[in-house]
Amino acid sequence: MQAQLSVIATVRRSLQVLVGNLGIFLVLAVLMAVPGTVLTDGLTELFLQLNKDLLATNGVLVDKQIAAILCMGLADIVALPWDLVVKTLAVAAVIQVFLRASEGKPVTMNNTFSYALSAFPRLFKPFALAQLIIFVGSLVYIPGILYGLFYAFVAPVVLLDPGVKGVLRRSTRLTRGRRGRIFRIYLLFFPIWGALALLGPLMLPNMHFVIAYAAWTLNALVWFVIVMAVLQLYVERMDQLQSLIDQHESDDPAVDVPLKAKI
Questions:
Q1: List of residues 6+ apart from 179 with CB closer than 8 A
Q2: How far is CA 78 from each of CA 85, 87, 219, rounded to the nearest angstrom?
Q3: Helix 109-138 and helix 80-102, axial crossing angle in degrees, nearest 10
Q4: Which residues contact 173 (CB under 8 A, 6 or more apart)?
Q5: How far apart are CA 7 and CA 75, in angstroms?
Q6: CA–CA gap between residue 187 and residue 215 (Å, rounded)
Q7: What sign does the CA torsion over 196, 135, 36, 128 have?
Q8: What is the rounded average pLDDT of the residues 14-28?
Q9: Rounded to a whole number, what is the distance in angstroms from the first to the last CA of the chain?
Q10: pTM of the model
Q11: 74, 9 contact by CB (below 8 A)
């Protein structure tokens, strides 16, 4: 059975694939970052204007800072369907690029986007459901982290093991024994995505739009690296389970292996 991959090894391999296919990843990152930022910023401005026109003019005064936070939160909620669609397409594309690059196959814009579009119908429902649960859990912070660890394998399960029922449950089972490494992968990039998640919505709207777009594009690139690192842990997990099955079958090939029902 192969040795466990280290966090540094998975991240290093992810970065190699990112750099080797930087053009494609930049296009994906811009498509994730820019339209979503335009949408949420526009909605925030709209809600702030409605607050001013409807509430303030009727004598209902809300602290400007609180109003801004509430409007940004409401904008994020309204823009959530768009975010789920784009994230679903992006995660499929990222997984496709990594797998083709790892197999030494050519990676092009055409085969990347074609795969993402073809995978979208079967991936959207379980992936979006997992993201919604994580989003709601993140409102209390700790549950969001736990759900993020539980459902880290949702996209790989759907894309690499088609036909599986109970995708979220399967992801939860398969991440056991790997959640510590998944958490460390996220923690490694916390200075970037953590700072953007906590301070970005408050600071970036007041900066030049180019800086805001660049920051959210960088955030998307970091997410791609994390997706590829987690994918490697999923592949490792499945390889180890397959090794156990093969070993069991070779020991007693006449027995119907119960392990198959567990993975």
A1: 149, 150, 152
A2: 13, 15, 21
A3: 130
A4: none
A5: 35
A6: 19
A7: positive
A8: 97
A9: 16
A10: 0.86
A11: no
Enter the tokens of residue 242. 């397959």
Contacts of 50 (CB under 8 A, 6+ apart): none
- Short-list 116, 97, 83, CA closest to 216: 83
pLDDT in tens, 53-109: 776 566 655 667 777 778 888 998 999 999 999 999 999 999 999 999 999 999 999
At position 227, the amino acid (one-letter code) is V
Residue 175's contacts (CB-CB under 8 Å, 6 or more residues apart) are 149, 150, 152, 153, 182
Q: What is the pLDDT of residues 205-254, one digit of tens each?
A: 667 777 888 888 999 999 999 999 999 999 999 988 888 877 766 655 54
Cβ atoms 164, 126 nearer than 8 A: no
Q: Are 184 and 7 in contact (CB under 8 A)?
A: yes
- Its sign, for the CA torsion 159, 182, 12, 224, is positive
Q: For residue 233, give both structure tokens.
A: 């842990």
Structure confidence by residue, pLDDT tens digits, 108-166:
999 999 999 999 999 999 999 999 999 888 777 678 889 999 999 999 999 998 888 89
Of 120, 195, 191, the C-alpha closest to 158 is: 120
Q: Which two tokens stand for residue 164?
A: 């599986």
Q: Considering just the CA atoms, what is the radius of gyration of the chain in Å? A: 21
Six-digit token string for 7:
């966090």
